Amino acid sequence: MRTILITGGTSGLGFELAKLCYTKFNLVICSSSDRRISNAKKYFEEINNSTDNILIEKCDVSDRNQVNILYDKVIKKFNEINILINNAGIYSYNKILDSKENELDKLFDINFKGAYNTIKCTLPQMIEKQEGIIVNVSSTSVHNIFKGNSLYAASKAALEILSNTLREEVRNHNIKVINFIPGAIATEIWSEENLQKYSNKMIQPQDAAKVLYSSIIHSLENKVAIENININPINGSL
After folding, report:
1. Model pLDDT for residues 35-64, shown as the tens digit of each residue
2. Residues forming the active site
3. Considering the domain boundaries, does residue 112 fall inside one?
């Protein structure tokens, strides 16, 4: 059974993807939130007779040492990581002049450096086995410019450049690198007011997860390289 690691896997898109994956893969999900970890553990304990193929751990992906510790735990339990989903991320909405330096640092630490850290840990054993899939969750805001979104969009744009460059570096090792580029997803990063106000222009996390899951399965079963997956609400982006 292959092993899939989903960062930010205890809520939103990551959690919905985890719900689809646990019967087919050894599932590893992580989060920096104790509350979300507790909720995820409770969920899987209630629906499973056994959680032997599930590992739920606390990890701040922006901290390289924590990522290394998580990696060691996964290898000890499951021996390998075949699929990496870099889903952990935070959102910030601010005009450039109103933004703070620590706001920029935090966005890049989690949205970009977090993915870099997990890739650095997992890639060597993928290369050794000559197989792997890496998915980096980006955003349509990289391509659809609107005011107040510069810092967040910049962090996701950097992630896409990382993906595109990495893909060329690992093609010859049978490793596939996918940019998953969704429009706004209805998760708790949005206020209740905005969730209601823009509900017709948001994707439900379970719908986004189904698209990503089917793409992962297709990539595993076929000699194709899915490189960019763009999805938007039928009514268009925010």
Report:
1. 999 999 999 999 877 789 999 999 999 999
2. 138, 152, 156
3. yes
